[in-house]
Specification:
Layout (H helix, E strand, L loop, with lengths): L45 H11 L12 E10 L2 E2 L2 E2 L7 H4 L4 E9 L16 E8 L2 E8 L12 H8 L11 H9 L5 H7 L14 E2 L4 E4 L5 E10 L3 E3 L2 H10 L3 H11 L5 E10 L25 E11 L3 H6 L12 E3 L3 H17 L79 H9 L2 H15 L4 H14 L1 H11 L3 H4 L12 H8 L20 E3 L9
The chain binds protoporphyrin IX containing FE (HEM).
Length: 556
């Protein structure tokens, strides 16, 4: 006997009934089983225990980075060509070959530093991760919206992220001193900082930002020949950004504006679209370049390495369950299909370990069995069991054989259809050294000079604002770095925080730093080098950036 269980449904109420996870109909979801109406509760109360203990486990560890994000689905449509030639000349990856061929995609956009419920209007790079469910299995292109990264060696990543996260003692957030303490001692971050502190560090919407693979990859054709490749996504919607004032106005009213905005656009049929372009370089060392093509703190100048379109992507479907398809989706840089490969970029190699490692912890060892992660073609492995195993693998004809090799059945190996790749041979001593050609300042300075005037002003204002909150030693070192990048930027930031050229020009290079010959010359002449020559230079951000003013009308 209960208060509600013997009540009939209201007239015309033909909804399905609630059940427990065991499939038992639930007759009373309002009252626990108790001894008498006033308690105490009984321990054999299965329905209550199941409900409460499942609730207690509703959260999985959030991503250690990129915790705040949103996923949409769509398709990639191949052009079949690259640079006017059949694409098969350069890659045998099946998804690219035929003009008009469509492959289902999932895209997760994200911020980096904040927790799962943090504001989406923060200054931060944005993640742009694409999963292609191809006929050869999944391909993940896990990139960002800015084209470069802060670091070039994966071993620095945990320290860098700690500098971005709240203070471990006070849990204060976004402490500029922590960030610039790290950056002042890691000059390879300078190029990325000129982007993150520009308006491009706060996109107006996920639909109006570029995307980049950032790290250098390889393509392989049917003959085994390889090329170095960089990926670029160009939004049909154009590039639009906010200033700190716009972001503050939006954030005051809505923390999840970008998720809502993307979802609403897809709901009303205004499907966002990006064109995928690649840059290509011969797969060898390039001593003629003034940067290392495997260095992810650098872009490849587009006037020398033109963008070549290979297809387009349209997002036309929202998630049907945010947790299942956004929290549990798992991308990784190791997830490639035949015809696509890694480069030797040591950052990329480090990332490739990290993603699936964290996902085995965060989601569980069987994370690839979840529908959103599982490939379009059925996986057939001899991997078995483990936490939350949902037996989905197709076995061979003899299901008893879950090992290989065997003459009694089971699965066989594929026959490699192509010759070994004919990439460069690598020799070298086992060592711990940074790449010889660091060139930490040149592209940072060039980027400043090529930015639009409103972007330059905003960059200076944002740097002055952040550096004003830093210790004097950090401020001095940062002004010294900016002068090495570009005189005008050094002077404007220095003026803004009250540090003159005379006060910093005596600083010695960091002990850990290797300056290029050009850097040495600039240092000898600090503050008097004149503007760099950027005539004819085209960099990733040369797509115009429109200011979307939100101050008067934050959440329209
Ligand atoms: C050594 C450097 C890096 C390491 C160790 C690293 C590690 C990680 C880890 C552990 C996650 C969380 C994954 C998860 O829980 O599912 C993550 C997410 C992500 N990372 Fe990195 N990362 C690195 C560099 C980069 C770079 C250079 C980019 C951009 C080009 C990038 C883009 C992303 C994106 C977009 C996500 C979010 C994926 C999603 O939406 O689920 N990361 N990274």
């Amino acid at each position: 006997m209960t208060d509600v269980a013997n009540q009939p449904p209201a007239e015309g109420d033909d909804r399905k009934v609630l059940t427990t996870r065991q499939g038992h109909p639930v007759a009373d979801n309002q009252n626990q089983r108790t001894v008498g109406a006033r308690g105490p509760a009984t321990l054999e109360n299965y329905q209550f225990l199941e409900k409460m203990s499942h609730f207690d486990r509703e959260r999985i560890p959030e991503r250690v980075v990129h915790a705040r994000g949103t996923t949409s689905f769509g398709y990639f449509e191949a052009y079949g060509t690259v640079g006017g030639e059949p694409i098969a000349e350069y890659t045998r990856a099946k998804l690219f070959q035929e003009k008009g061929k469509r492959t289902k995609t999932a895209v997760r956009f994200s911020t980096v530093a904040g927790g799962r419920d943090s504001s989406e209007a923060v200054r931060d790079p944005r993640g742009f991760a694409v999963k292609f469910y191809t006929e050869d299995g999944n391909w993940d292109l896990v990139g960002n919206n800015l084209g470069v990264f802060f670091l070039r060696d994966a071993i620095k990543f945990p320290d860098f992220i700690h500098s971005q996260k709240p203070d471990p003692v006070t849990f204060e957030r976004q402490v500029a001193n922590r960030v610039f303490d790290f950056v002042s001692q890691s000059p390879e971050a300078l190029h990325m900082i000129t982007l993150v502190f520009s308006p491009r560090g706060i996109p107006a919407s996920y639909r109006t930002m570029q995307g980049f693979g950032v790290n250098t990859y390889r393509w392989i054709n049917a003959r085994g020949e390889t090329k170095l490749i960089k990926y670029h996504w160009l939004p049909k919607q154009g590039v639009k950004s906010w200033t700190a004032a716009d972001a503050a106005a939006v954030q005051a009213e809505e923390l999840g504006y970008h998720t809502l905005e993307l979802r609403a656009a897809i709901d009303r049929g205004d499907y966002p679209e990006w064109e995928l372009n690649v840059q290509m370089m011969s797969d060898e060392e390039h001593p003629e370049l003034d940067f290392d093509p495997l260095d992810d703190t650098k872009v490849w100048p587009e006037n020398e390495f033109p963008l070549m379109p290979v297809g387009r992507m349209v997002l036309d479907q929202n998630v049907s369950n945010f947790f299942a398809e956004n929290e549990q989706i798992a991308f990784g840089t190791g997830v490639l299909v035949d015809g696509l490969d890694f480069s030797d970029d040591k950052m990329l190699v480090g990332r490739t370990f990290s993603y699936s490692d964290t996902q085995r912890y965060r989601v569980g060892p069987n994370y690839l069995q979840l529908p959103v992660n599982s490939p379009a073609t059925p996986p057939r492995t001899n991997q078995r069991d483990g936490q939350m195993a949902y037996y989905v693998d197709e076995g061979g004809e003899n299901p008893h054989v879950n090992y290989e090799p065997s003459i009694t059945g089971g699965l066989r190996e594929d026959q490699a259809p192509y010759p070994d790749e004919i990439g460069p041979e690598i020799t070298g001593r086992v060592t711990r050294q940074r790449i010889p050609l660091t060139a930490d300042y040149k592209q940072a300075g060039e980027r400043y000079l090529l930015s639009q005037p409103w972007e330059q002003d905003d960059l200076v204002a944002n740097l002055v604002d952040a550096l004003s909150q830093c210790d004097r030693a950090i401020q001095e070192r940062m002004v010294w770095h900016w002068y090495l990048a570009e005189d005008e930027l050094g002077q404007r930031v220095g003026d803004g925080i009250g540090i003159s050229l005379d006060e910093i020009k005596g600083l010695k290079p960091l002990q850990s730093q290797t300056l290029t010959e050009e850097d040495e010359q600039r240092l000898a002449n600090l503050g008097h080098n004149g503007p760099r020559d950027v005539s004819g230079l085209v960099m990733t951000h040369c797509v115009p950036n429109e200011h979307e003013d939100k101050v008067g009308d934050p959440v329209s």
